[in-house]
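All the exercises in this workshop are built on plain-text protein records. A learned vocabulary of local backbone shapes supplies the integers on the structure line. Once this layout is familiar, the rest of the handout is easier to follow. An example says more than a description, so a record of this kind follows:
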Amino acid sequence: MASSSSSSTSHTAAAGSNVNAANGEPKEVVTGYPLEVQSLENVPVVGGCPHVPLPLPHPQPAPQHAWYAHQQLYPTHYRYQPPDSDRPIFFRAVAWAILFTLISCIFWFLIWLVVHPSFPQLHVSSGELSQVSIYNSTATASCNINLTLTNPNRHLTAIYNHMEISLLYTSQRMLLSQDYLPPLVQPRKNQTVINTDLGFTDLDLGKDVVAALKEDLDQGTFTLGLKVLAMVNFQNGKWKTKAQFMRAFCGSIVLVSLPNNNSRIFQSSNRRCVVYLFSK
């Protein structure tokens, strides 16, 4: 008992007094010891005083990752997204695709500026209609009309795979005859004269059309029209465009009577035909 009391007293004195009784100097106070010790049986004695080990430090929280802290500070739609390793490759591929498309468009635009096809030019150069024989409601005559076809392109050759020319009685909207021409290849900056045979024989026009025809013949003038249909390609070396549909109309072809015979020749101030091109 005396031993226990002395040990307890010594510990209390060591823990509670700040002055050393032996020499009167202030004692060094060690903080961090527990205020109460439940049992001193297993506490080692060092230098006459029981040695109580310091408590283990409390575990410190792990430092937060910068990205996790950023998520806590900012709303969801403002959070930083970690970089994706595939994104640079994707954006680089998109940039190359856009650049390639742009270069291709510029290249084909320059090609179009150099070799883009211009519409063919067509006009009536001359024509002649023989005496028209009328029997009941039928009519017979020979007709020759010359057309001048011009290819205005400097770099393209025009290829006409099919050409159909129709002779029309425009005032009555009546088809008189048709002529079909073989394929035609026209070089660049070239003019070609096309001779057409548009005569008709025993053509049944009907009583009303025959009556109007007789009236025009008695007046000495006869007005006709031409319709031209063709399939045309333009070619420059090995490069060739797709087939395009050409449609032209030549109106107001006036044929007047000659004084010595009953034939009529072409006489018109408007000789140019209206030409259109359509994609097939």
Notes: The two ends are 123 Å apart (CA to CA).
